[in-house]
Amino acid sequence: MEKILKVDGMTCGHCKAAVTKAVESISDTNNVIVSLENKEVAFNYTNAETLEKVKEAIEDQGYDIL
Ligand SMILES: [Cu+2]
After folding, report:
1. CA of residue 11 to ligand 1 center, whole Å
2. For residue 27, how far is its CA from the centre of ligand 1 (angstroms)?
């Protein structure tokens, strides 16, 4: 499944790298793409539980899911 989350607070390359790393740290994610312009992170996953883990990982980095 593909998911696109709206993420608030990403402003620069460091933010982009931090969010990318956070999402990639969840073992079930693939093809993680962060767009600063659109304030979005897109990724593929297979397990329903992955979504909550991804949201937590992003919030742990200090960003808000919209
Ligand atoms: Cu930044």
Report:
1. 5
2. 24
Distance 66 CA to ligand 1 centre (A): 17
Cα–Cα separations (whole angstroms), residue 59 to 23, 63? 11, 5
Task: Find the length of the chain.
Answer: 66
Structural domains of the chain, ranges and CATH numbers in brackets: 2-65 (3.30.70.100)
pTM over 0.90: yes
Decide if 26 contacts 42 (C-beta within 8 A): no
| pLDDT number for residue 25 | 98
